[in-house]
Design goal:
Structural class: alpha/beta
CATH architecture: 3-Layer(aba) Sandwich
CATH topology: Rossmann fold
Oligomer: single chain
Shape: globular
Order of helices and strands: EHEEEEEHHEHEHEEEHHE
Strand order of the largest sheet: 6-7-11-10-12
CATH class: Alpha Beta
Radius of gyration: 15 Å
Distance between the termini: 24 Å
Length: 193
């Protein structure tokens, strides 16, 4: 889970907690960690101060990187070093997922070209400005294979449950949703391509 100055709290910690419960429930070797750009603490959009587990470039390449949204996106979507990092992860085979306006970073990195994607309703027009992005409305998440995007804020929980479903199956995702007491309806809230 990528953290940065101005990250929206629920964008990051809804999916993080969903995946952490999965880590607790599965027999698979799942390790969920938080990472900031430089490993230093960050202040979230609504003021929560968080110390990450490390820096995004520490350790082995992640199998999955979730890029949440928030007010800090305005900087990150124009930061060429960050966009290059996202392209590098994608080229190396990391599954990239975004929550809310985090999709704007993936779009700015050129990673959404030719793909269906979604984001928070307030930035769908911005998302449509990227070349060849098929903007989807009314969906909580869109799975385009190597890129998964979700609508805003709480939709990141739906997306994380979908990722559990994708990796370990519907029954495990339902088990995680049950622990969360989250009303998850599975495939009816999103789309896989």
């Amino acid at each position: 889970m990528l953290l940065f100055e101005g990250v929206e709290e629920l964008d990051a910690f809804g999916p993080w907690e969903t995946l952490r419960f999965w880590q607790e429930l599965t027999d698979r070797d799942v390790i969920v960690r938080t990472a900031s750009i430089d490993g230093k603490p960050v202040r979230c959009s609504l003021g929560l101060a968080v110390t990450p587990d490390g820096a995004v470039d520490d350790g082995p390449r992640p199998d999955l990187l979730i890029h949440p949204g928030g007010s800090g996106i305005d900087h990150l979507r124009t930061d060429e070093a960050h966009l290059s990092r996202m392209r590098s992860f994608a080229q190396a085979g990391t599954l990239l997922a975004s929550v809310c306006n985090g999709a704007l970073v993936l779009g700015a990195a050129g990673l959404l070209a030719g793909l269906p994607a979604t984001s928070h309703w307030s930035v769908l027009d911005d998302l449509a400005r990227f070349p060849d992005v098929e903007v989807r409305t009314g969906q909580r998440w869109v799975d385009a294979g190597h890129i998964v995007t979700s609508a805003g804020v709480s939709a990141g929980i739906d997306m994380a449950l979908h990722l559990v479903d994708r990796v370990e199956g519907t029954e495990r995702a339902r088990e995680v949703a049950h622990v969360l007491e989250y009303p998850w309806s599975g495939l009816t809230t999103g789309a896989s391509e």
